[in-house]
UniProtKB/TrEMBL annotation:
It comes from the Bacteria. It comes from Holtiella tumoricola. GO terms for cellular component: membrane. InterPro entries: Calcineurin-like_PHP (IPR004843), Metallo-depent_PP-like (IPR029052), Metallophosphoesterase_sf (IPR051158). One of its GO terms (molecular function) is UDP-2,3-diacylglucosamine hydrolase activity. Residues 52-215 form the Calcineurin-like phosphoesterase domain. The chain crosses the membrane at residues 12-30. This is Metallophosphoesterase. One of its GO terms (biological process) is lipid A biosynthetic process. Keywords: Membrane, Transmembrane, Transmembrane helix.
């Protein structure tokens, strides 16, 4: 009886070790090297004839765990979507001061194509060498950086307003950002930290975009993320609908790169295409 029991325990132990080994290898060497395209339809008008294509990408964290060659593939996939508007929701480098060739990243960014514009906001990592350094770099790549400000586009007789939140603790300027917002426009809001949405949920925003959370980076089925970072308590990953005037679609990207550890599990790097019918 003891012999059978010991044999059974050894089998269970072997299976557990095999599963843990497989998950570790998969999370380290496979999943984080993938990239998926998500396509989300957003019908703002049921009988609308015009479609605005928006691509969001976020949290590339170029550095130790995400290479320039991987990023170039992301650029290719973005361009394959033929976007009208591209939005980046922060954290370009993992440790900006340690990156050896930032100019090569800017060159790759400049190859992203968008018919009406490329917009970015700053993530917490983007402040490492100062705001002006990041803004200048993104400008060189053709991106407009919004720092508690907005920009207006005209697209097929529609007015599109894009609002960008600089960071979660800016204060008064941030609170006044959406004063005077016109609900007749197509209103888009960009932020880095998802829980910032709690400050703006009452406003007539059509679509809001965030990143920062990495979806927990390691996400266990039925359990959830191993670690939640700050400002991701209420919104972690994926689509949310807010109970407000426009029933705002809020999307929190799981991002593309990695930080701190080279693991991703149940959080495949993603770019997101929004087909907005107006």
């Amino acid at each position: 009886m003891n012999i059978k029991a010991n044999k059974y325990k050894k089998q269970i132990t072997f299976i557990i070790i095999a599963i843990v080994t497989f998950i570790t290898l998969y999370a380290t060497y496979f999943e984080r090297h993938l990239i998926i395209n998500k396509n989300i339809s957003v019908p703002l008008e049921a009988t609308g004839q015009d479609v605005l294509r928006i691509v969001q990408f976020s949290d590339t964290h170029l550095g130790k765990y995400f290479s320039l060659e991987q990023f170039k593939k992301v650029v290719e996939k973005i361009n394959e979507q033929s976007p009208d508007l591209v939005v980046f929701t922060g954290d370009l480098f993992d440790v900006m001061s340690e990156y050896e060739n930032p100019d090569a990243v800017i060159k790759a960014l400049s190859k992203i194509e968008a018919k009406i514009g490329k917009i970015a906001i700053m993530g917490n990592r983007d402040f490492q060498k100062g705001e002006e350094y990041f803004v200048l770099s993104m400008n060189q790549a053709g991106f407009k950086v919004l720092r508690n400000e907005s920009i207006k586009f005209s697209y097929k007789d529609h007015n599109i307003m894009v609002y960008g939140v600089n960071n979660w603790d800016i204060g008064l300027e941030q609170k006044e950002l959406l004063d005077g917002i016109d609900s007749n426009n197509i209103n888009l809001l960009l932020m880095h930290e998802p829980d910032v949405m709690n400050k703006f949920e009452k406003y007539p925003i059509d679509i809001a975009f965030a990143g920062h959370s990495h979806g927990g980076q390691v996400y266990l089925p039925f359990i959830g993320p191993i670690i939640k970072t700050n400002m991701c308590e209420d919104y972690l990953k994926g689509s949310y609908r807010l109970n407000n005037e426009k029933n705002t679609l809020f999307y929190v990207s799981s991002g593309i790169g990695n930080t701190k550890v080279p693991f991703r599990f149940f959080n495949i790097p993603e770019i997101i295409l929004f087909d907005v019918t107006m």
